[in-house]
Amino acid sequence: MDETRIPVLVGSGQVTQREEDPRAALSPMDLTAAAGAEAAKDAGAERQVLEALDTVVQLASFSDTSWRFTCPFGRYTNPPKSLAARLGATNAKRLVYTHAGGNMTQWCISRMSEMITRGELSAAMIAGGEALATQKAAQRAGVELDWSEDPGGEPERWGVSKRGWSDMEDRHRMAGAIFAYPLVENAIRGHKGETIDEHLMSMGRLFEGFARVAAANPLADRRDGFTAEQIATVSEKNPFIGFPYTKLMNANAFIDQSAAVILMSVARAKELGIPREKWVFLHGCGDANDHWYLSDRINHWSSPAMRTVGEETCRMAGKSVGDMDFLDLYSCFPSAVQIACAEMGIAEDDPRGLTVTGGLPYFGGPGNNYVTHSIAEMMNRVRARPGSWGLVTSNGNYVTKQSAGIYSTDMPEKPFSPADPATYQARIDAEKGPEVAEFAEGPAEIETYTVMHDRKGPSYAILFGRLDDGRRFIANTPADPDLLAEMERTDYLGRAGQVSTADGVNIFVPA
């Protein structure tokens, strides 16, 4: 094979910052640059590697993509240009800033690998970072920081700009991950036939394994090694965020973490003298999405896209999930892991473990950049055991956008040539969910639900329901504290009632 057309990952770097003084802490951009420098150093030819980069891709920050994490200290107008300048990557002319999505690191690595096979790219870095812990500390202390920078120009944008929830869902206050995933989780509970208490402990046992890995990872934010009981038990320090999720079941976004990965052609790696033991190859990949909005899904406990991406990634690599030595399943919430296990045929108590980092609740959930960490750590794992194999999954929005990659130090035996995702996306799109009633009236029953909490306790409920004619609707319930508390004690899946519409909002009243 032509070595100028064989993609290979050659460097990775990760940084976790624990500086308590926000004045002394690195800014998000400086933190990201630190990871980029570590990745170049890891490749073994730091200055030469940085000068060889023709492409710099930066993962979108949470402050640019989520209303919940808006930064009061300014913004970077051209993040990849600022990053390239800090790194001295003066030859990088393709500067990319992604749109939102936890899938975007793997998606970008797959696309850049294809670009290498076409001779469109020689060497690239993908990096990202968050400093939300410092941002939060500064806000609490009344400290003003200056995180503004305008180096000029506009970056190229990759990904999909469309937000993850519809206007109809927005009217019912389902406008983000902490609102959406609990709805998915209760649907999973209903599908499994578990009681509320049984399912809480099931989630606790699942995430105990993640917490155990984080406890042994010096880069992890939460290294307490939480037990299943600690994770599942509601307490003052571990309250419900969105029922049935306790705080310890949620991705931990308030961290300072950054990561970077460098890839290039084999020919370029040889030219730069990068040692063979640093090389890691992407053998299989796939990308797909489920119906964009939760309202339109076939059901809320499965993911045809995740199943298809797993199959396609393994097909391309010529491997099965059983051949993998290491796994890192995207773990923003238990439901993402449970669905991945179900769709890919992985036991939730698989002895290989389901993470190499500790996962988003315990290692840390640095916005759209977590998978850069998981791929960086997977590189460490397969390098330490030459000839081993690792699977990384990634997930954007609300079990919506799926990407996966299979990695190994083994040299590929065939050219890197993934199938066009459009060929299998069409099959996913063809499977339709029920018709949606935007404004619902009449007898109905609950399909799935959650109760959202604020600092005082239960605040409001969100649910998906079905009318007697089978149409789906989204609704809230009356803001009755007794009802909200009852919905957490007693199983309301399948509960009958009446739904009506007022001012564009559906209100479901249980019978």
TrEMBL record:
GO terms for molecular function: acyltransferase activity. Residues 425-501 form the Thiolase-like protein type 1 additional C-terminal domain. It comes from the Bacteria. InterPro entries: Thiolase-like, TLP1_add_C. Keywords: Acyltransferase, Transferase. Belongs to the thiolase-like superfamily. Thiolase family. This is Acetyl-CoA acetyltransferase. It comes from Minwuia thermotolerans.
